[in-house]
UniProtKB/TrEMBL annotation:
Residues 26-285 form the Histone deacetylase domain. Keywords: Hydrolase. This is Histone deacetylase. It comes from Caenimonas koreensis DSM 17982. It holds the Pfam family Hist_deacetyl. The keyword Hydrolase applies. GO terms for molecular function: histone deacetylase activity; hydrolase activity.
Amino acid sequence: MARMRVFYATQFVLSLPAGHRFPMGKYQLLRDRLVAEVPGVRLGQALPASDGELALVHTPAYISGISDGSVDAKVMREIGFPWSEAMAERARRSVGATISACRSAFADGVAANIAGGTHHAYADKGGGFCVFNDAAVASRLMQAEARRSQRATLRIAIIDLDVHQGNGTARIFRDDESVFTLSMHGQKNFPFRKEASDLDVNLPDGCRDDDYLHALEGALDELDRRFEPRLVIYLAGADPHEGDRLGRLKLTWDGLEARDRRVFDWAWQRRIPVAMAMAGGYGTRIEDTVQAQINTFKVAAQYAARWQNQPR
Ligand SMILES: [Zn+2]
């Protein structure tokens, strides 16, 4: 049976004020259902990213501010979580999970982080439930390791299909030609001041399956023309689903699954390993968000099997 390594930090649960809109419970629900329903999943506990790893992207002042709680109150308000040691630890481990998923993707073809996709985090500040930018730190670390071992530049595409723009990621890699940032997002949705990704696809409110999949096809074609990645980091946000409170799009279950299948297929055809992070999901019913994400993992597991069954 094919294996798919999945990294988690679900033991760090933030205690949020009553009525807080972040669905902290989704990670444990997702983990439980993964074990029960997706054969081949091998869970691994995420290690915390070190200061040195975080500093590949983040400023020393921001890293220490998050670590000891001295970070500006305004920055914490923009992140949207109250500061606690558990919050800081969880943020580090979420980065560590994406790092591990990248390493495992090189070995197994496909691997994942149960959390992560914290794309609103900039070098010197967080925002929108994002503390550190996991995909950005993992990208820079994988590139540093490739330079050391192969003396080569590792080209990475970050395919961000969370419904919100990956503004932090876009800004971090604005002047970096070795990382291609693709973001497909609701034009009128948060963040209201957007950054320039290498490729931005703005979607109208109420966008449905057909239009969405057509736009995705065009985006992948353009990515193909402009860039040749050797690793894909896929942010598979569940928030384009029609049952999402914050998404403003109207994708069905089938539409989301077709989206995931298209991304994994695109990468598989080119034999590009995929590390996946979950990114956002704010279903009116938390079960719907978990369902969307389980569906994504089931597609991912099918592609892990293809990788591992190919003739060598
Ligand atoms: Zn989102």
